[in-house]
Amino acid sequence: MKHLLPHVVDAIFAAVSVVSGIALLYFLENMLSINLFDPKMLASIVIFCGNPAPPSPHSFIVCTACAFVAGILLRLSMAGTTFAGEAAIAAGCNVLLSKLASVNFPPAVGLATVVATKPWQHSLVDPLTHLVTPWLAGHCIIYVFAIAMSYPRKYVRVQLAMREWRSQAGKHMGQSKGEYTTAKMKELFTRCDTTGDGRIDATEFKIAYRILTGSADDLPLSDCEEIIREFDSDGTNTIEFSEFLLAVEPYCMNSKLKE
User: Fold this and answer.
1) Residues 29-49: what's their mean pLDDT?
2) Alpha-carbon distance 29 to 156, whole Å?
3) What is the 3-state secondary structure (H, E, C) of 208-248?
């Protein structure tokens, strides 16, 4: 697809979501007099709000635990001494524990470095307090906010993409006729889902397009990748069946999709 409007609008939506999320934390901080934001959370906010939808919280939870443990272990091993590379060591320990746990959430390294290097007045009470607020409390608020923003963001992105696809539908498959039913679409989707995971990627969508249209002219893979990005709601670069129906709806304009 050559049109950039959905991309531009989605990029603006993502940027506004990030800024609004930070503003929300500051607002709640002042209103509740609770620490909810730390600069080391910025990368997390970008990941939560910058993607079409926030990732599963599993990686965040496990990596947060790994980062906290890494920071505490390093702090105890330093026995009150400080050295120039302590932040780097904390980051390395966090990565080690995260890799051993088979998870990945890079922003958690910020928690490890804070716990390991920040001066604490009350032993473990201070790092535990920092873990609860701002870290966990702030991230929970941003996560819920990102989920809420993902719905109107997806709606706008999909509507723009569908409008552009409708304008091109005749060009791509003007000779395609027949009745399209949900059952037939499901059969087509299942046939093209070569991995059997209930989702199809750009290559599989290309095959689905060829079967659906009966066209000898393949849709370029770059266009298929663009379609997947437009209708993918969770940033996995794949689409599930409900999203597949939205993506192919313009091709079925001449024959109403029936149950």
Assistant:
1) 94
2) 31
3) HHHHHHCCCCCCCHHHHHHHHHHHCCCCCCCECHHHHHHHH
What phi and psi, each to the nearest 5 degrees, are found at residue 181? Answer: -115, 160
Give the tens place of pLDDT for each residue, 167-188.
655 554 444 445 677 888 888 8
Q: Which two tokens stand for residue 99?
A: 């890799």
**What CATH architecture does domain 174-252 belong to?**
Orthogonal Bundle (1.10)
How far apart, in whole angstroms, are the C-alpha atoms of residue 210 and residue 216? 7
The separation between the first and the last C-alpha atoms of the chain, rounded to the nearest angstrom, is: 29
How far lies 227's CA from each of 72, 164, 217, 250, 259, in Å?
46, 11, 17, 12, 24
DSSP string covering 144-182: HHHHHHHHHHHHHHHHHHHHHHHHHHHHHHTT--S--BH
pLDDT given for residue 223 in this prediction: 79
